[in-house]
Structure formats: structure tokens, C-alpha cells
Design a protein that fits this description.
The protein is of the alpha/beta class and about 180 residues long. It has one domain: P-loop containing nucleotide triphosphate hydrolases (Rossmann fold, 3-Layer(aba) Sandwich), CATH 3.40.50.300. The chain is about 40% helix and about 15% strand. It has a 6-stranded parallel sheet, with helices on both faces. It holds the Pfam family CobA_CobO_BtuR. One of its GO terms (molecular function) is ATP binding.
């Protein structure tokens, strides 16, 4: 690609990661190299079917700061910040190597929303993105500055969700 853009999928609705995964599948189908880095997800705990299939189709998948205090009582905020910064450093390495055409940073916006990463730190990272690489950020609570920096922003709205009636997440549908 001559020019890659910055895309953000944010909002309170279901489907942010799903949209990013769909884009990854589309890119693989066009022989592009794809990287998928997730934050604040614990595959050992919940399984996340998308991670399994992404690896099977050739996507390089890595995870950082897998615990989040919302789901894990023993999660230490300082440790989560350190692990998030390790993820940022890892992304910088991918930027230098230019080893993928599309890089997805799944739930990294949560890192900013919940103060594990400063908004300025993420904006500085975005400034380092190689011109030809497409970059996707997902997560609830994208700040105005992140939205201004992005080339494409989709805000996914929750109109109605079965969670509101007490239904829990289901394998294959929510994870």
C-alpha cells in the first residue's frame, strides 16, 4: 500500500473487535501481512475464538496487559501499566521492521480510558506509524484527540443488547 490510514472502532456497542477481525480476514485474503495485538484480554480465561482462527490464517497475534481490574481482583494497576508500555514498545518494533501491512491494536483505547496509558503516549506512538502501514485501534472511550488524529472513525452504538436482560457472554458470539 502506498498510504496506510489510522482507523478507530469505538463506542458502547458490540462489534468493535469483530469489525477489526473482519478487516484482518479481508487483508489476508488480499495477501497482506497482518498483525493483531490485544490488550486487557485473557485468552487462557475466556478462549477468544477470533485469536485462534487469526493465528490459523497467518496473522501474528500477541497480547499484553491481559488482566484488567474489572475482571480480575488481583490485577495490579502499576503492573498493568508496565505491561501496556511493553506492548507499546513491541508496536514500535513492528513499526521499525515494517513487518506487516495492517496492524490492529485491539482494546488499546481501553488502556487510555482506564489510565494505563497516557493519551499523549498513544498519540506519540501514532506519530511513529510508517506511512504505508494501516493501523486500527479498538476500544470504548476514544478521546477527542485520538478521533482527530484518525483518518476513519466508526462509533458503534448500543441500541439494544441481550446483556441488558442479564444474559452472559457466549462462546463464539462474544468471545
Amino acid at each position: 500500500m502506498e498510504r496506510g490510514f489510522i482507523q478507530i472502532y469505538t463506542g458502547e456497542g458490540k462489534g468493535k473487535t469483530t469489525a477489526a477481525v473482519g478487516l484482518a480476514v479481508r487483508a489476508i485474503g488480499r495477501d497482506l501481512k497482518v498483525g493483531f495485538i490485544y490488550f486487557h484480554k485473557a485468552p487462557e480465561e475466556w478462549g477468544y475464538g477470533e485469536l485462534k482462527i487469526l493465528e490459523e490464517i497467518g496473522v501474528k497475534v500477541h497480547g499484553f496487559a491481559e488482566k484488567h481490574p474489572h475482571f480480575f481482583e488481583d490485577a495490579e494497576e502499576e503492573e498493568i501499566r508496565e505491561e501496556t508500555l511493553e506492548g507499546v514498545e513491541f508496536v514500535e518494533g513492528i513499526f521499525k521492521e515494517k513487518s506487516v501491512d495492517l496492524l490492529i491494536l485491539d482494546e488499546i483505547i481501553i488502556s487510555v480510558r482506564d489510565d494505563f496509558l497516557k493519551e499523549e503516549e498513544l498519540l506519540e506512538l501514532l506519530d511513529k506509524k510508517p506511512e504505508e502501514m494501516e493501523l486500527v485501534l479498538t476500544g470504548r472511550g476514544a478521546t477527542d484527540a485520538l478521533i482527530d488524529k484518525a483518518d476513519l472513525v466508526s462509533r458503534i452504538e448500543n441500541v439494544k443488547h441481550y446483556f441488558d436482560g442479564g444474559m452472559e457472554g457466549r462462546p463464539g458470539m462474544e468471545f
